[in-house]
């Protein structure tokens, strides 16, 4: 298959979308050739059968030029691809779907978020297949939907070799610093823990949403008002390739996201065998069975109680908990499994 991929960013050093570099590599292993059209082109080292075409955001061009380049690329390269895979940005399906349909190109859309917009509904009508991580990740009822997991490179993550709990307990959350991540709740959880004589710290690993520092400034004031300046640290974003080693420094990963879909950062932490606690209902199917200790209600007290249970476990029990999470990621969300499932449906 000759594949055209459309994505927001190709940059292996990006803290949010750096993972997609590995997706492209995995597609390249299974396709004759791959053309990637991206809004922003950064650092990458891709196989020889991959070409990257940028719409020019890294050069600061206007949105009109983005649009002109988009149509120029998909028309000029039309004989060099058989199928189209759009990652998250459904607007590309809206813009190019009619052209691709007229040419008989198979269109696949990846979407994993709880929000349902008008553009998503339009894209769902135009695409041939929709791929998502969980049922909650695509909430339009259609036979086109295929649940294929999240696509985690489990080889990138090594499991923790020690499950001894530090004092204070080292908590971490990862992701864009934006309101839907519900970081205030996690700060409140930290306050409850410290009040109940469970000393803990919280590191928030991630950059502000699209460079908007307003929410981050509000959060820092909130932390200050709670008297937790020395216990909460905003580290900023880190390159995705550095994340596996960073996660191993912590005791417990916590997530209070309100995105309505399974958070990829949670699965990254689980791939590292880190005990995970989440109040996001979309994560509870993953946190079931042997991993059920990780699910909690969307209240500060419930999350604090779940953290205390992990802290009170023996090291052997925490190791078993982390190992169960890692095994579930390998079985349900491994990257090769995801890419194989997508390509099988797009033939």
Report on this structure:
This protein has 347 residues and is of the alpha/beta class. It has 2 domains: 2-153 and 334-346, Glycogen Phosphorylase B (Rossmann fold, 3-Layer(aba) Sandwich); 156-332, 3-Layer(aba) Sandwich (Rossmann fold). It has helices at residues 20-30, 63-76, 91-102, 118-126, 183-195, 214-225, 243-247, 264-271, 300-312, 315-332, 335-346, and strands at residues 2-10, 33-41, 50-54, 83-87, 106-110, 129-132, 145-147, 169-174, 200-205, 232-236, 252-255, 276-278. It has a 7-stranded parallel beta sheet, with helices on both faces. Helix 1 links the parallel strand 1 (2-10) and strand 2 (33-41). The radius of gyration is 21 Å and the shape is globular. The chain starts with a strand and ends with a helix. The model has no long low-confidence stretch (mean pLDDT 95).
